[in-house]
Amino acid sequence: MSSEDVETEQIIGEILRTHSNLTREIIEKMIASKVEEFGGIIRRDAAALMVAKELGISFSRESAPSSLTALRIGDLASGFRGVDVEGVVVFNSGLRQLSSGKKFLRFALADNTGIIWGVLWDEQAEKIGKILRVGSKVRLLKVSVRRYKERNEIYFDKNSSAKVLSDLALEELLKYLEKYRVRTRVVRVLKSSMVAGRNCVYGVGEPCGPVILVLPLDTTVQENNLLAVSGCSEFSRRGVDVVKCDISAHVSALQTSESSLFLCREVPSSEVFGFKAEVLGYLLFRREGGRVFLAVEPGNGRVDVKPLVTFRDKSILMFSEGLGKVCEIFGAVAVEDVLRETECLSITPVGDRPPRRYNFSKFTKGDAFIMNRATVIALNARLRCLDSRPLFHVSMVLDDGTATKRGLSNSPSVFEKVYSLDPREACEYPPSALEKILSFVNQDLLGIDVIVKARLLESSAQYTLFIDDISLP
């Protein structure tokens, strides 16, 4: 029931209570006659109020229909005092605090005639700010209008207040947001996850594109929720909108009768929303981060190697815990043929590493677990430690007489067999000493024959041989 119908019913109820000789049917006819008398330009609640006054019933300003007391935003002018105005909340900055300790909250109210900004301070910011939820139609009572920075602004006096009239339909709210271009986003939640101390939400927004929300840790969201967020920083990263909301930002679940599926019924295809891949290995960069190699199935019945670039060792550590396992990965974006991480990269193993059986084969056979003898053409390694946990790779070029392959291993046993050093113990070495040890072995083992157990894949990727074990002479 609309606010107009609610107020009309209240007035009819009061007439029935004070005039027992009148029936609802008679009152309805009197209201219809009054609407017709004014050529149909007044609402039923206004006509009902006129009928009530003719019958000797008085209503206070607060209980009178808004069509008679509330102004449109386009009608407001600087200098107005103690006026009522109705509109839809399209922006709420959340409660903020100046360096002086003074609290404030900025908001924006809109209707079909325009938009106006307002500010609340201290106690009113804390109390009234909670009422001004994005998507709510509200009535501001006894507010004033002043000129600030060349535009009109609403401000609250000590007797000012606000009340919620209704929740706006989602479609209408989106039209207002599109029309007035305020910093408010509506996002449909597909998945949420805690990532590295962040509350990450993966979703879709208008116009049906992928969005990542980084929310305060104490924010609770559920799948298919519609969230309205205001007062957040926003930027685009390779086709994905990233919205970061601090603890003061306004984040609320929209109360709407529409299904949340109204917002982007068909979810666009994007790695942001998750995909499954087996973690084959990783190659460390000289500084932080590295290149992770994933086994994906592009849908043509074969397995391909897909690289993912990250510039954080914490992400490498997450992938190292999923080596050899199929993982569900969220928060990656595709740039040409390479995946790149976002702030909300999430990796979750979805199964244990299956047992492997290696069959003797040359490097000519693709997508197989093989055992093969080959000559070391090139060898290098890199190791660094994150919170006393080793991150390392062993990279080698091997030739078996039929083909030359680049091999990669992140196996602790391979590292120890090649360099006679446990990776965990290597964390205790000074970097300069460790570099000398690795460099010496890299040169010493050139030209020797080794037997490797590995997974071989047919791919154009930098590495196609992922080594699980090695035997040296």
Automatic annotation (TrEMBL):
Every OB domain range: 84-155
GO molecular function: nucleic acid binding
Species of the source: Infirmifilum lucidum
Protein name: OB domain-containing protein
Domain of life of the source: Archaea
